[in-house]
Amino acid sequence: LRLLHPDRPLAGRSALVTAGPTHEPIDPVRYIANRSSGTQGYAIAAALAAAGADVTLVSGPTTLPDPAGMRTVRVETAHDMLEACRAALPCDIAVCTAAVADWHVAPAPQKIKKTAGAPPPVLQLAPNPDILATLSQPSPTRPGLVIGFAAETEHVVPHATAKRLRKGCDWIVANDVSPGTGIMGGTENEVCLIDATGCEHWPRLDKTQVARKLVARIATFLQTPHP
Ligand code: CTP
Ligand code: CA
């Protein structure tokens, strides 16, 4: 199939992409979330689909429409995102771009009311599951290539290199999202691709170009035999 379609090097492969933020409810009207538009993740999902992969996009709440040519599963919380990812296994490639909230709270069943003079409520945070680390664990259904993202505000390469080892993923795409860069919420991205052999710095590119370049790397990796 792949030899017949050189422009679709991922034909016959399946891919899972997480994207967007997660929302962790505090009560029926409030939530905890990270800043994430979902743009980079949706662009990667689209580039994987364009390369012929069968794509499942597991997306937290975004304002972006469901992309054409793939299965989109909409979720709210980190717990639901993990369940949707598990349901998408087995697959060949997993790319975790989602800005998953690190904590959740036990949500109040009714809207928490302000009471004059009373102390403000204190949120008791509990850790969320780590989806990337879970997908990276050795298992018969571990995707052959697991890729994470690391948005850092300082010491980008050392932090991301340590994160790759901690999570157990194969590659990590690191970027500097500190306020001066203008990356956060923008249409461009400037990343380093980190694997077991080191770090490769890419120039600042449109997020769709970053996606295409990453997918080209994925295709090359999967075409190369690995012991
Ligand atoms: N990630 C995930 N599930 C989580 C947290 C993070 O799948 N509960 C994934 C993200 O999608 C990303 C990678 O892990 O691909 C790195 O996320 P990041 O928030 O940078 O890592 P953390 O381990 O949460 O570290 P930090 O303390 O920097 O937030
Ligand atoms: Ca985090």
In short:
The protein is about 25% helix and about 25% strand. The protein is α/β, with parallel strands linked by helices and about 230 residues long.
Explained architecture:
The chain is an alpha/beta fold and 227 residues long. It is built from 5 helices and 14 strands. It has helices at 39-50, 78-87, 131-136, 156-167, 207-223, and strands spanning 14-19, 23-27, 30-33, 54-59, 71-74, 93-96, 103-104, 126-127, 145-152, 171-176, 188-189, 191-195, 198-201, 205-206. The strands form 4 sheets. An 8-stranded mixed sheet has the order 5-4-1-6-9-10-12-13, sandwiched between helices. The protein has a two-stranded antiparallel sheet with strand order 2-3. Strands 7-8 form a two-stranded antiparallel sheet. Strand 12 and strand 13 (198-201) form a beta hairpin. The two termini are 23 Å apart. The site of cytidine-5'-triphosphate has 17 residues, from helix 3, strand 9 and helix 4.
